[in-house]
Amino acid sequence: MSANYLDGLNDRQREAVLTLQGPLMIIAGAGSGKTKVLTTRIAHLMRNGVDAFNILSLTFTNKAAKEMKERVEKILGSNEARNLYIGTFHSVFARLLRADAPKMGYPSDFTIYDADDAKSVVKTIINELNLDDKHYKPNLVYNRISAAKNSLIGPEAYQVDYYLQQEDQRASRPLTGKIYDMYVKRCYKNGAMDFDDLLFKMYQLLKGFPDVLAKYQHKFKYIMIDEYQDTNPAQYEIVKLLGAVHENICVVGDDAQSIYSFRGATIQNILQFEKDYDDVKVVKLEQNYRSTKSILHVANEVISKNKGQIEKNLWTDNVEGDKIKLVRTNTDNEEGKMVADSIAELKLRNHFANRDFCILYRTNAQSRSFEESLRRQAIPYRIFGGLSFYQRKEIKDFIAYLRIIANSRDEEALKRIINYPVRGIGKTTIEKVSIFANDQNITFWEVLERANEFGFKGGTLEAIANFVIMIQSFRVMLDKHNAYEVAVQVGKSTGIVKELFNDKTTEGLARYENVQELLNSIKEFTETPTEDGELLDDKSLGIYLQQITLLTDADNTNDENSDVVKLMTIHASKGLEFPVVFNVGLEEGLFPSGLSINSREELEEERRLFYVAVTRAKSRLFITYANSRYRFGQLQQNEPSRFLEEIPEKYLDRSYAGGGLRNSASMGGGGGASWGTMFDKRKAPGAPAGPSRPAQQEPRPRVISSPAATNHTPSANFTADDPANMEVGMDVEHQKFGFGKITSMEGAPNNRIATVMFPKAGGEKKIMLNYAKLMIVRQ
DNA sequence: CGATCAGTCTTTTTT
DNA sequence: AGACTGATCG
């Protein structure tokens, strides 16, 4: 009865929680207790008589939604919270669309295409138009389509939009609009929506069907939106429509943490919220409960370099804490080693657990050197992001069967498994089916069903017929059996499970286990009733498929009890916090990304990203960068990131050498051979080697290949030397060309080109030192 | 038809 | 360096 859940709030937080009516904007600085405010506010609404069914709460990740629901339940001490409409934009809209999709000609259990499926459709269309897919890159075209949808521009509008047409002309891809048009029609024919459709179609539904709009306007009397700074125009318009009647809209966000513009998000949504409604109340949460003063100082300094922010002053009562440790290494591998050594040492000296550490990088590709070094130290780790469980090949293959069972129009799924496992339906046949389907304007599946009418004969016809019968038998089964039982049957009938079981390689074993895990997850799903008690029987398969498509890696694998070091991109770390954070790869071209330094807007977004990275840390923060690293197979020399210059020297500790076990960062510069790590990396293949393959107890990292990818090098101790040290007259070794002598040298200091005489490899060759790997044999 | 191999191309972040 | 594609051979 008593509202003692209000007791733990500070004044600002309480004000936000108590403001229930009218438009409200909460500017929530990093670590300011945003989730607490959101959940308490929902609880407070419910305590004040608002029915959970009338509250819509949109979050950025599924995990955040789940967490909020649990916390509301805890505050209220009841399970009423299960009736809240809470989830990501995409998952909530998918659920709403299920009810009304037929109004727009889609099946209610429409398939949701993930980015891979969507790109595949785009590619098919590009090929059908006989366009060169090297000019019309499916990726680029798809991104363009995606951006259009997120701005609510349909194919018709796209093709008459002067500005967009100009852009496509300039990129010499004038037919992009045409592809867009065909893409939309093809998805429709396939009974499928892509990620962006979940927003676009939702908008069209509300716009095109006033009764539906009225229904939801009435239903959602209170709307809350988290991470508002990362919403796009489509989301903005939908929210505006839904909230138009009651105007009880509460948005929460932090303009300083807007990092998703590449996905169509626009920071303008939050900057202009005050102008969108009359009498907007603004509450700023400025007290940070997460980080030390040192960390917060750095964060504030960094973000102050951006222009046009909502004014705020983030402060904390926490201790001063250690200075930020700034560490420079020679190479990316040394960076990895330094981080792993430091983790080992901190565990030893300060009794940190593995789970207290997080390594944050700008791009997924950077994980490699950390994986290697952590393995060498036998420190268990887990990579978040990248492929989600459901995007692994073996899982996607299996799921493709379920998809085609649930929706016979799903051409992408069909093409994926029509010949997996091999059953004699090859490329030529698929091509033919495709052409018939397009000509007759029927689905791929229908052509298969009526294969004899289209002139297929002999073995091919038989193979098709058997396939069709098998899929039909699964569909029949679905009437009396749940999704799990059908899935098990699929595994049996197709022979997939058996095939994987018989593959005794490490990868094969992992794949087999993954499929078993998939079956378990289906079982769990079929045995758990939905939130609003929806009956699951016949529809369950379609709903299951829709849900898993919207899951990300970070959503489902976040078991707090596993004690592992976490690795992820900064984007993926949004909303999380860790006692010790390593922010790595602070180099020009990498962070800020070389693709984002050409406009003020892009650069500022990179800076916000850095701000996000810094504010993830609770007590200790390391920032690292390397003089050189391999990128796309080439050795690159990098300048330190410009962001580092923006941090006042007084907040930095540059003396940290890394782990204390060995000084891995012998300050580059002059002197020839240095590099403490030069030798331990490549224990010659035959050498007795210590823990050559540690970490058996690893928490099953994703299926990664080759633990110790040893290059088959001419010399056992081959090491690429720093180009800066090379001079005319030196004897050198090249991985491919063998031994040679440098006869002359040219080019700019940072891009030197050596002419090398290789007696055994056809004489003189010009070698770009930044790219090729040369080792100095004799100076 | 399908598996293997060499040659080509990429080059940010993700619901 | 790694993924992907196209060509070649069984």
TrEMBL record:
Gene3D superfamilies according to UniProt: 1.10.10.160, P-loop containing nucleotide triphosphate hydrolases, PCRA, domain 4
Domain UvrD-like helicase C-terminal: 293-575
Skewed-composition ranges (Low complexity): 685-695
Keywords, ordered alphabetically: ATP-binding, DNA-binding, Helicase, Hydrolase, Isomerase, Nucleotide-binding
Catalytic activity reported: Couples ATP hydrolysis with the unwinding of duplex DNA by translocating in the 3'-5' direction; ATP + H2O = ADP + phosphate + H(+)
EC number of the protein: 5.6.2.4
Pfam family, one: UvrD-helicase
Regions of compositional bias (Polar residues) in chain numbering: 707-718
Disordered: annotated segments: 672-720
Location of the UvrD-like helicase ATP-binding domain: 7-292
Annotated InterPro entries: DExx_box_DNA_helicase_dom_sf, DNA_helicase_UvrD-like_C, DNA_helicase_UvrD/REP, P-loop_NTPase, UvrD-like_ATP-bd
Binding positions for ATP per the UniProt entry: A28, G29, A30, G31, S32, G33, K34, T35
Presence of keyword Hydrolase: yes
Top-level taxonomic group: Bacteria
Entry similarity comment: Belongs to the helicase family. UvrD subfamily.
Protein name, UniProt field: DNA 3'-5' helicase
Organism: Chitinophaga caseinilytica
